[in-house]
Q: What sequence folds into this?
């Protein structure tokens, strides 16, 4: 199957809030689209534009309260300081929790692990994250690994922007495997 269509029919939610890490949102969004999947930016406010840590805007495609986790094959949580804002919205936490419990791919990079902790889906799971929130994930019951990408069932985690190639490869591989 040509690379441009290997994720055709796959729907991926990419969560957005203010102060997201630029590369951690845009790199996965573009990789999913490049592979033929549909990437939808989901946020707490309809039609709102969220600004990254470095001032780069992203417009919300769908309001979190109007999406059904069953409509997505994956949820991606970028880092930066956005996850701390995301977890203040019960609907965003519920989307992550439902996706994880329904065995959808749930991928978090950097501070995105905060959403996994708030969604209570990492108890006993192997994860990685930005070193500054390592203790938070351990206290949420996770087993921390200092690796560029950690895949534990449907949960995929990475530490930082330099891990994005391995992070996106793991996501795309998991999505392609789910189609078989």
A:
């Amino acid at each position: 199957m040509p690379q441009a269509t290997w994720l055709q029919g796959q729907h991926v939610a990419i969560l957005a809030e203010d102060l997201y890490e630029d590369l951690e949102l845009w790199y996965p969004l573009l990789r999913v689209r490049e592979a033929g999947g549909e990437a939808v930016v989901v946020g707490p406010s309809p039609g709102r534009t969220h600004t990254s840590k470095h001032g780069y805007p992203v417009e919300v495609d769908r309001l979190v309260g109007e999406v059904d986790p069953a409509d997505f094959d994956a949820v991606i949580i970028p880092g930066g300081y956005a996850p701390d804002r995301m977890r203040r919205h019960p609907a965003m936490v519920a989307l992550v929790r439902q996706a994880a419990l329904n065995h959808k791919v749930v991928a978090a990079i950097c501070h995105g692990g905060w959403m996994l902790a708030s969604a209570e889906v990492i108890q006993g799971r192997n994860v990685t994250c930005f070193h500054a929130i390592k203790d938070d994930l351990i206290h949420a019951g996770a087993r921390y690994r200092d690796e560029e990408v950690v895949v534990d069932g449907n949960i995929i985690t990475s530490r930082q922007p330099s891990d994005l190639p391995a992070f996106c490869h793991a996501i795309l591989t998991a999505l392609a495997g789910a189609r078989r």
